[in-house]
From TrEMBL:
SUPFAM superfamilies found in the cross-reference section: Metallo-hydrolase/oxidoreductase
Pfam families (UniProt xref): Lactamase_B
Function, in words: Counteracts the endogenous Pycsar antiviral defense system. Phosphodiesterase that enables metal-dependent hydrolysis of host cyclic nucleotide Pycsar defense signals such as cCMP and cUMP.
Entry superkingdom: Bacteria
GO MF entries: hydrolase activity; metal ion binding
InterPro entries given in the database record: MBL_superfamily_lactonases, Metallo-B-lactamas, RibonucZ/Hydroxyglut_hydro
Name this protein carries in UniProt: MBL fold metallo-hydrolase
Assigned keywords, A-Z: Hydrolase, Metal-binding, Zinc
Catalytic activity, reaction form: 3',5'-cyclic UMP + H2O = UMP + H(+); 3',5'-cyclic CMP + H2O = CMP + H(+)
Record PANTHER family: 102 KBASES UNSTABLE REGION: FROM 1 TO 119443 (PTHR42978:SF2), QUORUM-QUENCHING LACTONASE YTNP-RELATED-RELATED (PTHR42978)
Cofactor (UniProt): Zn(2+)
Length: 257
């Protein structure tokens, strides 16, 4: 299986996928900064938002990192300008929240699910998270300050999937894959484009970057053995599903496989 980094920007690679920058996160332990991307996937059943970036709460005058993020503020710093809020960035791509049919949250960390708190009027039946992710945030939310309380309250009424695979529309176009390790209920997304005929795998935080993926490096994980097993599963999915492109949430571009 030949692998290489595809250096082109998303707009020039795929016409029905938009990668939208939503700030930057710095992991203190790694002394590394990573961009944060959310994705719009234009399917035959409407637009999917895969992850939602940071919450606009961090722009309030009363924002306090320790109060909002709890213990997480010790290992992560957020760099985000006001115009990089998810809602603003979507509008810059001529996408209103009313034009989004479905939201899929890979997991409930604040750089992936925080922005969903700005979508209070969105139909929660159209927001998907794995039930094991909900169970995990339910048991750990007190560690994550005000964000933990807010996200737990919000996701109580969203759609919770279970099992290893979930056919989102029932037509095989989009499949949600349980890929635990980084968190217990982490989800990746397999998209089979009717427009290009190619298959795309959105990893979320299975690996932080495409370089990490090519070098067999999984992301910082709470469940390390599970993360290794998931990495093996991803490799098999790529072969079985004839995946052409792999995308991560903390690097721009694609890994062509």
């Amino acid at each position: 299986m030949e692998e290489r980094i595809h250096n082109k920007g998303m707009g020039s690679v795929v016409k029905d996928i938009i990668a939208i920058p939503s700030g930057e996160i710095e992991f203190v332990l790694f002394k590394k900064k990573f961009p944060v991307y959310i994705f719009i996937i234009k399917t035959t059943q409407g637009n999917i938002l895969f992850d939602s970036g940071f919450s606009s709460t961090i722009f309030s005058d009363s924002y306090n990192p320790e109060q909002y993020l709890g213990s997480a503020h010790k290992f992560a710093n957020i760099n985000l300008s006001d115009d990089q809020k998810a809602i603003h960035m979507l509008k810059r791509h001529n996408i209103e929240t009313g034009n989004i049919g479905t939201v899929v949250l890979s997991h409930l960390h604040f750089d992936h699910a925080g922005g969903i708190l700005d979508f209070q009027e969105f139909n929660k039946e159209k927001i998907f998270v794995h039930e094991l992710e909900y169970e995990e945030i339910y048991s750990t939310y007190t560690m994550f300050g005000d964000y933990g309380k807010s996200i737990l309250s919000f996701v109580k009424n969203v759609r919770k999937i279970n099992g290893d695979r979930y056919d989102l529309f029932g037509n095989g176009e989009v499949t949600l894959l349980h890929t635990p390790g980084h968190t217990k209920g982490h989800i990746s997304l397999l998209y089979k484009s009717c427009k290009t005929g190619d298959n795309y795998l959105f990893l979320g935080d299975v690996s932080y970057t495409v370089e990490d993926f090519l070098n067999n490096n999984y992301s910082g994980s709470v469940y390390r053995k599970t993360a290794r097993d998931t990495f093996d599963k991803i490799r098999k999915i790529i072969i079985d599903e004839q995946v052409k492109y792999v995308l991560t949430s903390h690097s721009l571009g694609t890994c062509e496989v």
